[in-house]
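[Backbone geometry]
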Amino acid sequence: MKRTFMTMALSAALVLAFVPSCKKEDIKPGGQDKPIVDPGDDPEEPEAGKAAILSFSPAEGPAGTELKIVGKNLGSSVDDIVVIINGRRVDATDLQDLENEQQQVSCKVPRGTTDGVDVEAEVKLSIKRDGKRENVTAKSKFKILIKSVVETLCGYGSLQNGTIECKVQDGSFGKTINDAGFGENMQDLFFDPVNPNIIWCLEAWGNLRKIDLNAEYVSTVAKSSLFSGEDNFYSMAWMDQNTLLLGVYQDKSEDNTGILKCTRDGDSFVTEPLLNDKLVRAVAVHPINKEVYYLQDQNAGNNVKRFDPETKETKTLFQYEGVPQQGQEDWNSYTGVKMVFHPTGKYAYIIHAKSCLIERVEYDEVNKTLQPTFEKVVGNGSGEWVDGIGTSAQLFRPYQGVFVKNQRYVEEGLEDQYDFYLCDSWSGSIRKITPDYVVSTFAGRGSEQLGGNLGVGDQDGHPRLEARFTHIQGITYDEATETFYVADAYYRKIRKIHYID
C-alpha cells in the first residue's frame, strides 16, 4: 500500500525526536585510525641536533593549502621529511635554509583528513636521520576548513500541498519545468564502465535514464514497457563493460523474467532474459569472478541465489536474515535489500532497508561462492539516526552504498583500504562506515536554524552545516574528481558533493 510522503515524514519526525545525539568526540575509532608514527617531544629550545617545529603558516585553510613549517634541525634533504597532518601523511615539497639556523618545510594539506567537518589538526614531522625516524609535533594546531559543497546537478521538484510537482522528461541540466525531470522513486546510480562522463539512473518503475555530464543532458534510453510491461526494477549492476543487468520485481511466476540482460548497442541496449525468477529485489556481480548474485524479498523466502554465467546454472545458497520491524511492512519501493561487493571481492554487504541494519557475508575464493557467514556489522534494527561503532550505531532505512578508497589507509598499509558510504534514506543523511565499523554522518541534516525535521529538505551548501536530503536511495562516486552523486528520490534531483578548493 503506497503512503504519502507527509505521512512518512511525520512518522520519521516522531522517531527522530527521541533519538539521542551522538557527538563526534564520543566516537572512538579503532585500529584503522591509529597514527602512523608516535609523536615526539616539542621543546621550546631544541637540544643540540634535535628537531623542533617553531611555527607554521597559515593557521587555517582547506585541503590544498600550502603549509609552510619553520623549525630547526630538520635535516639536509626534503626526501627525508614526511609531514603528518591529522594522521595523514604527505611528502614535503620543499626544504629551505633560513636565517638564525632555521629551516622551512613546505607541503600541501591533503584531502581525506576530516569526516566532513572543520577540525583542529595536529601537525607533525617525521625526519629520517641515520636510518631512524625522529618525530616532532607542533605546539599549535592547524584548522582544516571544509571546502566541499552539496549542489543540485539536475532535476527539479516543487513541493505543492504535500506532493511533488515534476514532469518526467528528457532535457538539459536546468532547474525549471522545461528542463530534465525524473520519475518517482529514483533508485540505483552507476557510472558507465566505458565512459566516465555518463551516469546511469534507474527509476523504480523501470525507466533507465542516461545522465551525460559533458553534454549536461538527461535522456531516457528505455522505458519499462520496452522491457517487461508493468513490472518494476529495483536494482541494476554491470556484468562487464557492455552488459547491464536489471533485477525485475514481478510476482506473477518463477517462469517470467527475473533478471534482464541489456547488451550495449550504440547509444541503447538490446535486451533478453538472463534468467527467470520472481520478486528479485537486488542484483550484484562479483568484481573478480563475475558470478551473478541476487536477493529475493520475504515473499519468496529471503533467498540469496547464485547464477553462473558459464554453466547457466542458478543455485539457492541460503536465506538472509533480515526481518522488518513490527509495523514497518512492505511499502512499495520504500523497502527491500541491496547487495554490494567489496572491490576485492572478499566479502559483500547485505543492506536491509526494512531491518535498518547491514550484514557482512564472506566470499569463498576457492569454491567461488558466497558463504552464509552472517555478521551484523552496523545497526540493530531500531530505525533511528545515531552515529557510533558497529551495532551501537543506528540506521534509518539504508539503501545503496559505494566503497571508496581511503588514501590514508593505503599509506598505513592496512589490509582493507576502503570506507563505505551509503544513503540512509529516512534520516536524510549519507553515512560513512570505516573498515572497523565506525559510523559517522558524512552529509545531510544541516540548516538547523530552519527547524523542522532535519531529515527532510533539499537545501544545498556545506555538507553538514547546511545540506539536507529527503529519501536518498542511490549513490555513486567518481574517484578521478572525488565527487559523490546522489539520487534524491523524493525531490527527484541528482545532487553532487564535491571539493571546491
In short: The longest helix spans residues 5-16. Confidence is low (pLDDT under 50) at residues 1-43, 324-334.
